Amino acid sequence: MHGLQIGDKAPDFDMVRTGGGSCSLKSLSGRKAVLYFYPKDDTSGCTKEAIDFNALKADFAAAGTEIIGISPDPVASHDKFKAKYDLDLTLASDESKTMSEAYGVWTQKSMYGRSYMGVERTTFLIDAAGRIAGIWSKVKVPGHAEEVLKAARAA
Questions:
Q1: Is residue 41 part of a domain?
Q2: pTM
C-alpha cells in the first residue's frame, strides 16, 4: 500500500518513454498529469485501460492534463503495444521499479496461491503545482478513465 496522500508533493521521476527521449515531473511543470501504473503490456485489463485512456486523450488535453502510462516493461515492448492498438499515449518504462516503489505500487501480489512482486494497478492525478490531487488504488478498469477525467477537469 502506498504511503502517499492527496496533497503530498508527487515523487520526482525521469523515465525513458516511447518514441525516444524521456518524461519527467519537471517537464510537466504547470500542467496536470495522470500517471497510471499498470502491470504488463498487451494483457487484457491493461489493454482495455490503455484504449479507454487513449479514447479520452483529447478530453484530457482540453482539461490541461497529460496522460502517462507506466509499467516495468521495456520501451521496445511499449512501442509494440502502442503500434498494435494504435495508441497515442506516452508510455514510460520503469524497468528498475524505482518509480513504482516511490509511488508505492510495487507490492506483493498472489495468484493461484503463489506470491510474487508486481505492480498494483493504481492511478495518480497530479495537479499543475506537482501535488497529488487524486489516488485510485486497485483500479477496476470499466469506467475508470471517465472517473479520472472528471477529477482532472475539477482539479
A1: yes
A2: 0.94
